[in-house]
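Action item from last week, closing it out:
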Amino acid sequence: MTQFAVDRLVLTPDDIDLSRSPLAGHLDAETYVLGAFNPALTRLPNGNLLMMVRIAEALREPIREGNVHAIRWDGDGGGRFVLDPWPLQFANTADPRKFELTGYGWKVMALTSLSWLLPVELSPDGLTRIAIHYDKAIAPQGSYQCYGVEDARISLVNGKYLMTTCSVSPERHSTTLYTSNEALDWHFEGIVLDHQNKDMLIFEGLIGDRYWAQTRPLGALFFAYPPGSPWHAGPSINHATSPDALHWKPHIEPAIRPHAGTAATARIGGGTPPILTEVAGKRGWLTLWHGVEPKEIVGIYRTYWSLLDPQQPWKVLATSHPPLLEASPELTVPLEDQMYVRDVVFTTGIVEEADHFIVASGEADLACRITHIPKDAFVPTPE
């Protein structure tokens, strides 16, 4: 694994004050921070950096009195958070993050935690915490996100901040959009993708007069590529375009697909919003994305990169089969008693400096990691 000189955890569960959580005072049960992770990253107007951190707030004892419990925002109850009990005999609780309910004839999940978003202000280099803005937290506000708001990504386009989030509910598993002029006070714009799509990332700039975004629709069925193809079937990173960032149309050309020669791309998805820059002697849209190698329940998550054509972003100018970033067990040694998954780095934000990129990732679904990656570390695999 490539070692980077600046690579550290900047926020862990121990740094979060749950007495200031949106859930505080709502539940007759003890909660704890399962993870403070998967941070969006952007530059504030004052020059500092902002992480929008996913806080997964979990029940200390989800299983009691023969039931496993889920946290839910209840609009009918006056906008409160409540607990739903599910009989334990109908639930598979092997995964500590969620449980599967049996007897439906298809896959149905519920969560032992509920996620909300917390703005954390950092110094310009991303290495020192300046402030945690609990008063600016984003929590569920409708039935379409009653099980949480997850995995924000922030793009700055024409002076306006655009933040995509994943909203979770029994109604749908949708992508929701928030906008802001200064990245601290956010306005909810609504649902922009009405299907299960975990990784919608808006390009940091227009192409022509259109907004572009990476998407990653999921499904239970994928059709095979022909024998000998360089690709293999599975989720892929697609593109969509929009005149206004609200109404999106899928682009017809395929984009980044799982490569048959790389085990860790058995499942892929977007990581950082594409930024227009120059690496490996070429100018294009740099995008960092994750690839997953199957292992146990979660798998091994690694970060890869691709450089996309400036005008035709479905064309890949350069990429690398070896990973750019991998999970770092050394970083999480002080958090060993809180670990519940391993081998996971999930990169979610990037800011460009003169000779390096400041990259934000979720480490082990537990903490926020900042890595300074030199521009000369982007070495493409020969075609």
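Closing note: The two ends are 22 Å apart (CA to CA).
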